[in-house]
From TrEMBL, chain A:
Gene3D superfamilies: GHMP Kinase, N-terminal domain (3.30.230.70)
Signal peptide location: none
UniProt record, GO biological process: nuclear mRNA surveillance; poly(A)-dependent snoRNA 3'-end processing; rRNA catabolic process; U4 snRNA 3'-end processing
SUPFAM superfamilies in the record: Ribonuclease PH domain 2-like, Ribosomal protein S5 domain 2-like
Domain Exoribonuclease phosphorolytic: 22-153, 157-221
Family per similarity comment: Belongs to the RNase PH family.
Protein name: Exosome complex component RRP41
InterPro entries: ExoRNase_PH_dom1, ExoRNase_PH_dom2, ExoRNase_PH_dom2_sf, PNPase/RNase_PH_dom_sf, Ribosomal_Su5_D2-typ_SF, RNase_PH
GO molecular function, one term: RNA binding
Organism of this sequence: Phaedon cochleariae (Mustard beetle)
A single Gene Ontology CC term: nucleolus
Annotated CDD domains: RNase_PH_RRP41
Automatic annotation (TrEMBL), chain B:
Residues of the Exoribonuclease phosphorolytic domain: 29-163, 194-257
Family designation: Belongs to the RNase PH family.
Name of the protein in question: Ribosomal RNA-processing protein 42
Main location as per UniProt: cytoplasm
A GO term, aspect molecular function: mRNA 3'-UTR AU-rich region binding
Any one GO cellular component localisation term in the record: nuclear exosome (RNase complex)
InterPro entries, sorted: ExoRNase_PH_dom1, ExoRNase_PH_dom2, ExoRNase_PH_dom2_sf, Exosome_comp_Rrp42_subfam, PNPase/RNase_PH_dom_sf, Ribosomal_Su5_D2-typ_SF
Residues annotated as transmembrane: none
Automatic annotation (TrEMBL), chain C:
Biased segments, Basic and acidic residues type: 935-947
Cofactor(s) this protein requires: Mg(2+)
Any one Gene Ontology molecular-function term assigned to this protein's record: enzyme binding
Membership in a protein family: Belongs to the RNR ribonuclease family.
Keyword Lipoprotein part of the UniProt annotation: no
GO biological-process terms attached to the record: nuclear mRNA surveillance of mRNA 3'-end processing; rRNA catabolic process; rRNA processing
Protein name (Swiss-Prot/TrEMBL): Exosome complex exonuclease RRP44
Localization in the cell: Cytoplasm; Nucleus
CDD domains: PIN_Rrp44-like (cd09862)
One GO CC term, this protein: nuclear exosome (RNase complex)
Entry keyword annotation includes DNA damage: no
Record keywords, A-Z: Cytoplasm, Exonuclease, Exosome, Hydrolase, Magnesium, Nuclease, Nucleus, RNA-binding, rRNA processing
Amino acid sequence: MSRNRDLLSKIGLRLDGRRPDELRRIRCKLGVFTEPDGSAYLEQGLTKVLAAVYGPHQVRGGRSKAQHDTAIINCQFSMAVFSTTDRKKRPRGDRKSTELSMHLQQALEAVIKSELYPWSQIDVYVEVLHADGGIYTACVNAATLALIDAGIPLKEYVCACTASLANNDVPMIDISHQEEIIGGPTLTVAALPMSGKIVLMEMSQRFHMDHLEKVLNKALQGCKDIRQILDEAVRLHVRDIGSSTGWANTS
Amino acid sequence: MSLCEAEKTFVLHGVEENFRLDGREREDYRPMELETDIVLHAFGSARLRLANTDVLVAVKIEIDVPFPERSKEGKLEFFVDCSANATPDFEGRGGEDLAVEIANTLSSAYRSKHAFDLTKLCILKGKKCWKVYVDILLLECGGNLFDAVSLAVKAALWNTQVPKVHGVNIDGNNIELNVSEELYDCDRLDVKNAPVMVTVCKIGEKCIVDPSVAEEQCSVGSIVVAVSGDKFSTVLQTGTGSLHPATLMESLKLGHRVAQRLDEALWATLRQIKPGQDVGFLK
Amino acid sequence: MFTTKVFIKKTRIGNFLKNVREHYIRDDIFCGVPSCDKCTPVESFLSSIHKNECSSYDFNHYLILDTNVILDQMDVLDEDVIGNVIILHTVLKEVKHRSLPIYKRLHSIIENPSRHFYVFTNDHHKDTYIKQNDGELVNDYNDRSIRKSCLWYMDHLPKEKFIFLSDDVNNRNIALEEGILACSIREYVSHLVNGAALEDKLSRKDYHIDSNTKDVFPPHLTNVELLNGIKEGALYQGTFRASRDNFLEGFVNVESLDDPVIVQGRTGLNRAVDGDFVVVNLFNKEDWISPSEIVLEDDGVAEENIDEVEKKERQLKKSAHKKKGEIKPTGRVVGIIRRKWRQYCGILQGGMDGVYQLFIPADKSIPKIRIETRQAEFLRTQKLIVTIDSWPRHSRYPHGHFVRALGKIGDQNTENEVVLLEHDVPHSQFSEEVLSCLPKLPWIITEEDEQKRVDLRHIDICSVDPPGCTDIDDALHCRPIGEGRLEVGVHIADVSHFIRPGTALDLEAASRATTVYLVNKRIDMVPDLLSSNLCSLRGGEERFAFSCVWEMDENANILNTRFHKSIIRSRSAMTYEEAQMTIDDKTKTDSIAESLRSLNKLAKILKKGRLEKGALVLASPEVKIQMDSETMEPLDVEVKKLFETNSMVEEFMLLANISVAQKILEDFPECAMLRRHPTPPTSNFDPLVKAGRHLGFDIKIESGKQLAKSLDDAVKPDNPYMNTMLRILATRCMLQAVYFASGSLQKDEYFHYGLAVPLYTHFTSPIRRYADIIVHRLLAVTCGSDCTYPDLLDKQKTGNLCQNLNYRNRMAQYAGRASVAFNTHLFFKGKLQDEDGYILYVRKNALQILIPKYGLECTLFLAHKGETSNIFEYNEEDQTQKAGDVVLHSFDPVKVRLSLNSDNIQHEKFVLQLVSPCISGFSVPPLSEIEKMEVVDDKKRKSANDGHKKKNKKRS
């Protein structure tokens, strides 16, 4: 009990000085690389992620995999060996990476208008440079930006956010690594913030039903806040590119 | 990227004329950007961007036991990861061959005592030493990986801070280290002679340095030379083609010359870097 | 704003990691001062009315404390003289890092609104956050942060005054230079208006070493020397235990050595206090000695004088002997790794003038403590709490300070307070927050309640309890339902209806864990409104209950079991005696009487079945003290009377508990709260088996069943009490029963040894036990009348809760016994009585006598300690003492004279003298004869007085 109590001080500040409903600082940039069709860099607090999108292009490795009515969304999640405090042995291929790749794919398939690209494939690669809690959410958010940078049609933004419970009572969002360790269960939600739909939800431990709703609501609110930040970044990026081609003022 | 015959001929003629695709001469490098301290939780780090080649290097250190046959030395290990961000070909284990080749070349380049003094990493002979992990992440491939990697590694090692060991308590087999927990109380590594690698690429009859992706495709063979101070620490021939001994000697000389120039430029840049800058991919 | 914190941390496996943490800096943190109009206010306990009055400053002010003040002077802060204190977050973190107990105390002050403390999160505030400079030590950085905040407050609120208290001279001087009002806590407190009482509580760490004073103790080694010594195996570390009889002797339990290390004398003990974790240096083998057998008491009075100790040391040395086979490792304490100092209860030693006084702790293993006080005259009449601050080399006694007075010595209330404190029983008034969770009166049963509950108001239910019981938590009924079947119901007060999980009331009850019964006082687990009214199943009132209803046949076989919440109206709240009379009175044929008779019949069958399965019948003399209701003095001490109805109620409670245990384990295999009684290790039974053998009985201990049977068989017609005595011995062999979470143990460990059932829990007394409340909640979920909550399903949390419950239960039990002992003493004060007793054990120089009438167990010395009697002959083989032709065996009945020795006011003792069997030269004549003789013969009275004198002699 006492361990949980420490997550929130008496005046309602978290260990790093945030309030329960505040996100970490999010900074992002679109188009960081030239080689991929779309790329993005996103920082959520200290969690840093690079995402790259290739495609839509021909299906690699044999045509048999190709779908006649939709594009294949291929995701790979990878963590730099130095991304964690303890050095990792391998960047990918372990169970956790495979699971995260699948979850990423699940979230992105829900939002990409893949029916526009039959017989083709879209690759989304994410690389975690620094893991400090909420890896998955940062990956989803970065992948969204990279897809936008690649010009791939999306239904809307897909944003992800984590939430947990402080003092067994107060829901808090965007959980840092430190809070993940000393706190209780963490709820990860990927959602379409504009329509309010949930595309992926995952819990790290047992959660009591009584708490679920309020925590979920907070997480969804977090997704909406993230969407706003991403949207601003996209608009800024488009304006920058536009200004170099001379149509910036039309917006 | 694959080039057709005509394109290759165009590249080749450019090299002949000492006026390459992007306007460089044969011994010119493309523009480089270097940042250090980019990975906060590593003990040292650097990111080097050579045109479109993007390399991120982080250094982590751990306590380890020295090899019995080299009881007075610490350990240095290189690990290269080719991110699929660079090209879809690297997906899964696709980049492993390239990664291993780069890592091995680095290991042999740093193995010489002249290049990097491992005895300084030893804490207690035969019992305790530092193990330095140099982790290299290839984020984008725009040609000339070896050169970029070697420069980034050297910069990262230069940047590395090793906590000071204040004392060693020995109790039978149990050794306890008394390590300073204050951040400013650190040692820097000596990287004065750390090798710099230069890839010399033979296109047609001429040799160039810093080949772009297109030029790499036209090359008949290339040589990677690692130069530490004024000596070679390793030489590696890559590619499918064959070289005449005379060309080889010529390339070595070219590599040696360019490497020393490169090293000077690197030091000049490192000296200019101020600590505490908010750097990274947001620029 | 945003910044990062970077630090290197050592991991468990000896590696070094570089950690990076985010650190956000904000502009919306409230300064906490009510008069501020610049910040957005949030809740702050700082008050504009409270005044800190200190004569050094002629204005009201707020205080900002340095870390060292909090760490060292917590007792001063505990007093509510000082208020309007701003605790900086930097300081709070440092305190937490340095000392968790201090942090907890500070935390409870901060939480208390009337103390006017406020935590200012300075490290996240944009104006008070500063970056650590390159090369700056953490300590210096923290000091700088604190000063920065002080300056900020002065700048932020120019109209208010702030004073910075610090005992760090360096930090204080820099602060003064920077223009901050700063002073030391000593200076501040001594100028405080109403601060006289506080001055006593200042911790005295800042002693100055006078070069003239002689060192009383050798110095301790430095930490490095100690650690190296331990590593090299030259020194040993262990827990120091002081001897209770000899203040110059102690033992150090070293894990790697078989025997504890003896340490003797001033230099040997070298300032170790009982419980400390110390380092010892072993002597060479030829200097090893055996434990001393002499009793030495510390008579020291004056601080400076150590002659008397030296004399005692010589005495000890003289007595030092090297008995073969008893020689133990011997050494001396060379350093102390961890102090286990706590707060001690005790009294002041009389006969000293001046501000320095000696405090004698009630616990004999703790040395006297020197304190400084200006109210010695008053404190001498009081029981006190004192804590140790330091023990410098030049001081004969540790230095401490007075914490608070508990009340007059010998006063009932004071002694209750002492008992409660010594046993860590939470006994403060219920807080407002807790009381606010109570239902509002008048309490009525709503229609909704009626729908949710089974209405049992038409059934004739009654309760049976001891006389004067106001917290009735169980009631019973039994009625025929045809086909020769009976419906039996146990109805338990529905406390969990009123105590909702997570409320302040719930947390308080969980912390208290149990109601504690002292002789004349009850410390309730839940407020009176619940315990004696709304939950109590009083006669004639409609109450909520949790019912466990069985269908049984005539032979008490359970055909089916139901659990449900219900509404009941108990027809009558009876005492055991009344119920017994109702059963016995054949003329009564109302439904209650019938019901009781059926219950009684079933209970007998149940009990028989239980005993056949191997349940133990154990005995421990339980006494009841009759109190005078006006003077609150004990009138009489007697053994509790037991009726058949006692056992009847008990049987059904056991049955209900077992049924509930099965049910909740079925539905909550991981987190059910159960109670187990571990099988004792066979070595525990040694005294019992030995005693049995001397009497010619073979006590089998292989299983509970065998033990029960052999106890039943061990009967001697000429000594009916003997069997009870054997059972008393058997009881002492048992281990404590404990609560546990089902998921934390293997199934076969759930066993309850005493009751011989595989599963058991507590369900039937939720008013006075918290475990029952949890069980109620679990059961309510299984029968669908309530929902779960997270902590209920958390195995870990249930486990932690169990630990607290077990601890509190044990302490409550000890507290109860201590209270009985005190009141028994009070009753016997000045009395002289002859009583019947039995010999429990025969020892070398004494007999252990049990006096069943008072449930007392006392020692009858046959000779002075350490001497052998010239009258008695001890036979170790047979465990007998022989004097002339009288032979005393274990369990023999004797008559003894009982009186109370009050020489030591903190440790009153019973003194026994043998009356019969008559042994010339040792036993005393019966009192009744003396009285007769008084009238008849003056001369003989003299001889009786001689007897008295002799007794007095023996006391000394």
